Please model this.
Amino acid sequence: MVTTSERQAPAPASAGDERLLTYAQALNEALREEMRRDPTVFVMGEDVAAWGGGGVFGVTRGLADEFGTERVRDTPISEEAIVALAVGAAAAGSRPVVELMYVDFVGLAMEPLVNQAAKLRYMFGGKVSVPLVLRTQQGAGRGNAAQHSQSLEAWFCHVPGLKVVTPSTPADAKGLLVSAIRDNNPVVFLEHKLLYGTRGYVPAGEYAIPLGVADIKRPGRHVTVVGIHMMVLKALQAAEQLAEEGIELEVIDPRTLVPLDEAAIVASVKKTGRLIVTHEAVTRAGYGAEIVARVVELAFDYLDAPPLRVCGKNVPVPYSAVLEEAALPQVADLVAAARALVRGAA
Amino acid sequence: MDGAGQPALALDDRGLPADRLLEAYRQMVTIRRFEERALDLYRAGELRGSTHPYIGMEAVAVGVCLALEPGDYISSTHRGHGHTIAKGGDVRRMMAELLGRATGYSGGKGGSMHIADLDRKMLGANGIVGGGIGLAAGAALTAKLQRTGAIAVSFFGDGALNQGVLHEVSNLAAIWSLPVVFVCENNQYAMSAAAAWTIAGGDPAKRAAGYGIPGVTVDGMDVEAVARAARQLVARARRGEGPSYLIASTYRFVGHHAGDPLNYRPKDEAERWRARDPIRLLGERLVARGMATADDLAAIDAEAVARIDDAVAFAKASPPPTVDQLLTDIYA
Model:
C-alpha cells in the first residue's frame, strides 16, 4: 500500500528552493535538465525550434539555443514519419522526446505508435526497448472546435505496451516528464492546452515523480472524486463550494493512467463510500468507465451509492462558447453530482 | 554463416572475391531450404498463422547484406526469414520461433512475421506493409546523432511504394541526409495487386528524383549486381551524403503466403522468372569461373539441408513457452 506521504512530490530542500512556474515552464525545465544529464535525449517535432524559439505552446522554448538544432529538431508536418523515426531511433539507443502539436493529429501516427512502439518489445521476446516519449496536448475550452479539442487518453490506455501520463499541476508535470524520459518504454505524455499558463510551486533541482503513483490533491471524507487534467482543478473548485455546506470531497489525481494507482483510489473509496470520476473525454467508453469498473471489482461492498461519471458529452467538441461549455463537465455538474450522491445515501 | 563479423567488402567492378561469392551462394541456398521447410511445416499443420516465403528473392537480401558492416541496421517486411539469415541470424532460433518454442528468437511470442535479431541489428520482420521504413530511418537518425558510423537499410516490397509513410520518411531522410538505403524488393505483386497497375509513374526508381536522391534499379536475380549497387549506395550513406533508393526487380516463385491461391498471375510468367533462378545463376557463374565445381555446389546444398534438418530437430525438441511467460516482456 502506498501511503499518502509517499504519493506527494518529493519535498524541496527548503521553501526557498521553490519557484512559482507555469506548467509550460515546468515542462521546459524537465526537458532542459534531462537533455543536460543524458546526451541520448533529443527533441523532435513540428515547430519545436524555430517558432518563436520553441513550440506553439512554448514548452521547448530556448532548447535549440542551448542544445542546437541537431538535438532540437524541427520537422516537416509528417506525423507518421516523426513517430516512426522516433521508434527506430529509440530501438537503436536514443531517447527521443517527440512533440505532436495536437493529440487530434495522432490519427496520422497511430501505426508506428500502436503497431510498432507498443509491440516491438513483446513481439521480440523482450529483446528490445523503446524508450520514447510522445508529448502532446489535448483538451477543450478554447474554441478550437472538433479537430483541435479532443481528449483521447482512452485510446492509448487500451493498447498494452504504452504508458499514459496526465499531469494537472506544474510540479507534477516536471517530475512526471523526468520519469517518462527515463522510462524504458513508450510513454504517451498528455498535457492540457488550458493548463500551460497555470502556475504552481515547483521544487528546484532534479526530482522525479514515479509513474503509477496517484496524488491526493485535497483530502475529504464524503465523496472520492477522481479527476483527469483540467477536471482536477474543477473538482478542487467544487470541493471549495461544497465545503461550505459540509460536504467534503476527496480529490484524487491519478497522474498516470497506465500504470494506474488503483490502491490509492480504492483506499479513498473505502473511506468515503462514494465515487465520482470526471474527465473531459466523452463519457462513452472513456477511461472513467475503467476506473469505475475497477472500484466495483475491488471495493463493491464499500460503496454506499452507485458511482457516477461526470464527463464529456458524447459529441464532437463544438465551436460556439455556449455549446462547448455544455459539452464539457463543469464545476456545477460536479457540485450537483456530489450533492446527489450524499443525499441519496443519507 | 552465423558469424556477424564479416568485414566490409572491397569489390572490384567485376564481382565479388571467390570466398565471398561462395559465402553468398551458401546463404542463398540456406534461405531457400529454410523456406521450403517452413512451407512443409505449415502444410503439415505445425506452423501456426501464416508464413511468407522469400523463395526466388534470395539474391536481394544476400546481395545487400554483403555490403553491410555488423553494426549496420536492417528493417524487414512480412518476408523476414531471408533478411535474418543474410544478416547472420541463427536458423535454429528462427525455426524454433516459427514453431512457437521457448528457444525461439522471441520465445514464441512473435512467430514467422516478427523474426528479429537485435544483436545483429536486425530490427525485425514487420506485419505492417511499410512498417519498417521509419524504423530503419530512425536507427539511421540515432547513428547520425551518436556518430556511430553505422548506416541502416530498409527492405520493403513494391506494395509499400504506395504507403504514405514511404513518402514522409523519404522526404525526412533526404532533408536530414540520414544514412539509410531504401531497398524496394519489387517482386511484382503486393498480394494479388500487380505492380504493373498499382505503381503510378511506371518506374519506381523515378520517385527518388522527387526527393533529390539517387534511385538505382538493379537485377534482383543477380546477387553480384545487387551487391555492387548496394555497396555504392551504402558507401554514399556512410560518407554522409544521405539516403537513396535501390529498386531490385525480383519475383516470388511461390505465393504471398502459404495459403495463396496464386490465381492472379499468368501461368507462364513464373516460369520465365524461374528460368533466372538467382541460385542457379550464381551456381553457373561459380562453375564457369572455376570458383567451384558442381560437386562443391552439391556439397553446399547438402550442408544447408543438414543445417535445416538440425534446426527443425532443435525446434521440435524445444519446449513451448510456459504460460507464466504470457504477461512478461510487455514493459521493460
